[in-house]
Design brief:
This protein is an all-alpha fold and about 80 residues long. Helices cover about 65% and strands about 0% of the residues. The chain is built from 4 helices and no strands.
């Protein structure tokens, strides 16, 4: 189950995020925000020690490859592919 949040951002930041999303192959600003939060939370290792460095690198490579190929999937599809 996913939680939904509302986020207010200044117009210039929204415009920059939209441009970034377009230039780097994201489907929308939400994906940029999601990845940004994920990087802050997981790359700092302050909050979740359940992944090894090797697992985090593998996840990062999967995300980069998916973005490059514009073949993004949701958590449900990813879990099905991983058999979880």
């Amino acid at each position: 189950m996913q939680n939904q949040i509302n986020l207010k951002m200044p117009p210039k930041l929204v415009a920059a995020a939209r441009k970034y999303a377009h230039n780097y192959g994201y489907r929308n600003v939400q994906e940029v925000i999601y990845e940004s939060v994920r990087e802050k939370v997981f790359d700092r290792k302050e909050f979740d020690e359940s992944f090894t460095e090797k697992e985090i690198n593998l996840i990062d490579k999967l995300i980069e490859s998916s973005l490059r190929k514009k073949q993004l999937v949701g958590e449900k599809e990813l879990r099905a592919a991983l058999g979880k």
